[in-house]
Design brief:
single chain; 373 residues; alpha/beta; six-stranded antiparallel beta barrel; five-stranded parallel beta sheet
């Protein structure tokens, strides 16, 4: 496909993607919109509506701007690839990152396929991020709005797509986006309450598990809180309801603040300890993706959860699937299942999935054998 000025914009019905459509039209692009129907929740429907509110909102804006609008029904693949992954990770004692997985296996793949069908060279979304080209390689980089930056969620997308992607909001702040909406008279958009939730979880993820994993949770049942020596401290509701570093909601009084240190799905135990016990100086990362190994010849910054500060670290590649991270400053609450994303000067060098202690021990043994060989 030859480069052209047609751009497919992922329209969520919210303020960010809506303003993207306006900005790209002003820049002379021929905009085509697409909205993906991923998951139907009661909060997405007003009384009497057959389609979710966000689809109706995106369609209205498309009509207002004279944009052709498409809808992709991705509910089945979203359930199989994202929701089932989300629940299975908690049932395996890990903390999932569904937005990273959705970006990798659904959103960008479906958008690229539709863009090719519609002869759109460019793709665009309302992400607060940027694309940069260095040494003929395309990278994601942080958006200028530090509080809204979404580069963390994009590390596992096939990097071959980035040469076609536009992020109009990457160079402005959320407040500037709201100002544009206000200037355009989009009252319903700039007064819209921003959602910070996982799109398919109504409130607490534990309530979601209780509805969608009721049989598994009944089999798991209550378990024991234990200390670092294995001594029983009390009872918990079942290991899927906890995550590494958790302090609130433990419902146990030990005289000092308690934190979740480890989760053992086989024994249904949750290990508790003090704040210093959740500190770590190394971790293992599985199923990593990096743009160039040369980027890791010097120390980098690693972000171990969304909105957390980057931690300087040395990266050691063990094999094609495992790498070791040695923190140069203490890290806290390293949770298996979460994404570790590597940065240098705001540029995403790659990322991977944090592994558990068993995986860490295995990686260190492999590395030792390689060093002795």
């Amino acid at each position: 496909m030859r480069e052209n000025r047609r751009v497919l914009v992922g329209m969520s019905g919210g303020i960010d993607s809506s303003i993207v459509c306006v900005l790209l039209q002003k820049r002379g692009f021929e905009v085509v919109g697409v909205t993906m129907r991923m998951w139907d929740s009661p909060r997405h429907f007003k009384e009497g509506n057959v389609e979710p509110d966000y689809i109706l909102s995106a369609r209205r804006l498309a009509q207002q701007l004279g944009i052709v609008h498409h809808v992709i029904d991705a509910r089945d693949v979203f359930k199989n690839e994202v929701v089932d992954y989300f629940t299975s990770e908690y049932l395996n004692g890990r903390t999932p990152n569904p937005c990273v997985r959705c970006n990798r296996v659904i959103k960008w793949d479906l958008m690229r396929k539709l863009a090719d069908e519609l002869d759109c060279w460019y793709l665009a979304t309302g992400h607060y991020a940027n694309v940069v080209c260095l040494n003929d390689n395309y990278y994601i980089s942080k958006g200028c709005d530090v509080k809204k930056d979404q580069s963390y969620f994009l590390w596992d997308v096939d990097p071959s797509i980035w040469k076609r992607v536009l992020f109009p909001l990457g160079e402005i702040t959320k407040n500037e986006t709201r100002d544009i909406a206000k200037q355009l008279g989009f009252t319903d958009l700039y007064t819209q309450k921003e959602s910070m939730e996982i799109c398919f979880v109504e409130s607490d993820y534990r309530d979601f598990l209780k509805v969608h994993c009721s049989d598994q949770l009944a089999q798991i049942g209550q378990g024991d809180y234990v200390d670092r020596e294995g001594k029983k401290l009390g009872y918990h509701e079942g290991y899927p309801f906890y995550t590494i570093g958790q302090r609130k909601g433990l419902r146990i009084a030990l005289g000092v603040p308690a934190f979740v240190l480890k989760i053992n799905p086989l024994k249904n135990t949750v290990m508790l300890g003090e704040r210093s016990d959740v500190e770590a100086f190394e971790m293992v990362v599985e199923n990593y993706r990096v743009v160039s190994f040369r980027d890791f010849e010097e120390s980098v910054s690693v972000q171990i959860r969304y909105r957390s500060a980057g931690i300087p670290a040395q990266i050691i590649f063990v094999d094609e699937t495992l790498l070791l991270v040695r923190f140069l400053e203490v890290a806290s609450s390293v949770a298996p299942g979460q994404s570790a994303v590597f940065y240098k000067e705001g540029i995403v060098l790659g990322g991977g999935v944090i592994g558990n202690d068993k995986c860490l021990k295995s990686a260190k043994k492999r590395l030792k054998r390689l060093q002795e060989a």
